[in-house]
Amino acid sequence: MTDVLALAEHRRGSLRDVSFEMISAGRELADAQGGDLHLAVIGGDVDSFADDLNREGVDAIHTVAEGEEFNHDVYVQAIEQLYAEVAPTALLIPNSVNGLDYAPAVAERLDVPLVTDAVGLDRNGALEVTREMYGSKVATTVEVDADEVVVTVRPAEWPQAEGEGSAEIQSFDADIDESQVRSTVTGFEEVGGGDVDISDADVLVSVGRGIEEEENIELVEALADALGATLSSSRPIVDSGWLPKNRQVGQSGKVVTPKVYIAVGISGAVQHVAGMKGSETIVAINTDPNAPIMDIADYAIVDDLFDVVPELIEEFGGEAP
Amino acid sequence: MKILVAVKEVAEAEDEFEIDGLDIDERYLEYDLNEWDDYAIEEAVQIAEAGDDVEVVSVTVGEERTEETIRMALAKGVDRAIRVWDDTLAGADSLDVSAKADILAAVVEAEDPDLVLTGVQANDDGYGATGVSVAEVVGYEWAAVVNELELDDDTAHVRRELEGGVEELTDVDLPAVLTIQTGINEPRYASLRGIRQAQSKPLDVQGLEDLGLDASVVESPVERTAMFEPESESDVVTFEGDAGEEAGQLAELLRDKGVVEG
Q1: CA–CA min distance A126, chain B (Å)
Q2: Nearest neighbour of A105 by CB, restricted to B136, B159, B243
Q3: pLDDT score recorded for residue B261
Q4: What is the ipTM of this complex?
Q5: Which of chain A's residues have a Cβ under 8 Å away from the Cβ of B131?
Q6: Which residues fall within 8 angstroms of residue A70, CB to CB, at 6 or more apart?
Q7: CB neighbours (10 Å) of residue B87?
Q8: How close, in Å, is residue A57 to chain B by CA atoms?
Q9: pLDDT in the model for residue A193
Q10: Residues A174, A80: Cα–Cα separation, whole Å
Q11: Which of A67, A73, A62 is nearest to A4 (CA)?
């Protein structure tokens, strides 16, 4: 058998975009190894999810009606049983927060090697997975010399599958041992809120690790004021407690799409880029010409922000602190 | 209560570097405690400081150089440390997720902690899989990407940081493995006193045999076959000149776009 089994992901009643990317990644790999693409969706309104997931390229959709929301103890058991029935050579799981909460356990239980955060998949006899290292400074390929593999797939690397499909939809009865369900999701909470909604702003001045010290935030704040812009930040600034969580742009913060995004001292880790790459015009101010942010920036100043930002503030009639 | 904190020394690449074969040339790498693990250490030490009779043990898999990293954990308040290393591990090309999980699981089984903490991921290879794999091997419950933790006798009440500014509230039975996200606390700097005290705290080096494992644990079907610098798809326009000139050009652009006045 050379089939691929890919997992969809949903949260609070909606499929997440990565589900449709899993179809594209899964189809690509299934074609490379000459097999079918099976998709699975576990929990929630599986029938309606299956209808949405029935897009071009999917051969079969397995629905597992177990619980409303994600629970890794249920997922691990359900996938183990479905895997035995489908017998795929590759199991693809989103490299999302929830994906990383069950993929390693599934791989261990199946005794199948695991490669996470794939940005490319190729089969030349053995499976070759492309992934990044050292904060995206380099890419690597790893070869998996085994008959079966579990791979987690980085979100937003493959296009979302479109077009109506003609997959066979089958419900799968998983036999869940409740004594093995030892975690309980008790609720969800939106973080942030507060006085400012950065996703509404036309112009964002965003500050990152390059600012070095908490007191230097003032400098970037003065630039935002001079421009009539809103101040936002990358994750490390929020982690350090220098700005509140509602200012955080990125995968785990807000997704923003302003007309202009000025990234000050931000290197552009993949999690940050996920939150701002939809900006109309991206300007980077950074000393490192090879920083990942330069790959998506439209304009750049490769210089010390402590020299450039005061000059910019002056340009717009403001006063540097 | 006993808490085991698994930490890793990671390599960080300088801005300019060269690749030598399958890795970045050693000259361009600097070694440090993995950022996520620093938060895991802090969380464990805070639990110990808040409660009576809590022992915090730290474990790492690494060569002699990594003692510097684990001494840092001791200096921050960890009670004792274990470094796993021997000739077999030194001879292995790299350890895949499963190998690391098996080695750490053997330490968990020997130590029998109530709670295992580790970082969400390592910022060198970024697999993000060790914690959950260890949990599965030893049969502990787990939670990945935890940014808030409260403990009672038999349950960990955690928040998991999902994408898009949403947090999930989850109760997890103990014993459990939790992978800790940055921002959960504010990691302390090691004080001079702490650094001095760390020198006299126990640091035990164990080999595979001590842990009841044999060489087969390092055999891996996953092998790195290439490393390269990703091709830049950048068509960025770089403003040139001194800081004033650069600022002037950016100002002009922003005025042209009509996003600012003046």
Answers
A1: 10
A2: B136
A3: 65
A4: 0.95
A5: 104
A6: A9, A10, A11, A43, A98, A101, A185
A7: 10
A8: 27
A9: 67
A10: 9
A11: A62
CB A104 within 8 A of CB A112: no
CA B186 to CA B111: how far, in whole Å? Answer: 27
Closest CA to A73 of B179, B168, B142: B142
- At residue B29, the 3 state secondary structure works out as strand
- Is residue A296 within 8 A of residue A280, CB to CB? The reply is no
> Which pair of structure tokens corresponds to residue B29?
């790498």
Q: How far apart are CA B84 and CA B207, in angstroms?
A: 6
CA dihedral A291, A295, A300, A304 (to 10 degrees): 0
Q: How far apart are CA B74 and CA B45, in angstroms?
A: 10
**A190 Cβ partners below 8 Å, 6+ apart?**
B165, B166, B167
Q: Cα-atom radius of gyration of chain B, to the nearest Å? A: 22
Partner B, chain A 40-69, Cβ-Cβ below 8 Å: none
Cβ within 8 Å of residue B192, ≥6 positions away: none
Q: What is the pLDDT of residues B123-172, one digit of tens each?
A: 999 999 999 999 999 999 999 999 999 999 999 999 999 998 899 999 99
User: How many whole angstroms separate alpha carbon B105 and alpha carbon B97?
Assistant: 12
pLDDT tens digit sequence for A144-184: 999 999 999 999 999 999 999 999 999 999 999 999 999 99
Mutate to test the interface with A, among B132, B141, B228, B245 (most CBs of A within 10 A): B132
Instruction: Give chain B's end-to-end CA distance (angstroms, integer).
Output: 63
SS3 B252: helix
**Six-digit token pair at B32?**
């440090």
Angle formed by the axes of helices A217-227 and A305-315, nearest 10°: 30
Residues B1 and A311: their CA atoms lie apart, in Å, by 56
**Which residues of chain A neighbour B243 with C-beta distances below 8 Å?**
303-304, 307-308, 311
Q: Do B234 and A295 touch (CB under 8 A)?
A: yes
Q: What would the two tokens of residue A281 be?
A: 């015009």
pLDDT 10s digits, A23-77:
999 999 999 999 999 999 999 999 999 999 999 999 999 999 999 999 999 999 9
Q: Which two tokens stand for residue A203?
A: 């112009």
Rounded to the nearest angstrom, the gap between the alpha carbon of residue B131 and the centroid of all alpha carbons in its chain is 10
Question: Which of B222, B232, B252, B255 to mutate against chain A (most A CBs within 10 Å)?
Answer: B222
Measured CA to CA, the distance from residue A58 to residue A8 in angstroms comes to: 12
Task: Pick the closest to residue B33 from B118, B158, B134, B149 (CA basis).
Answer: B118
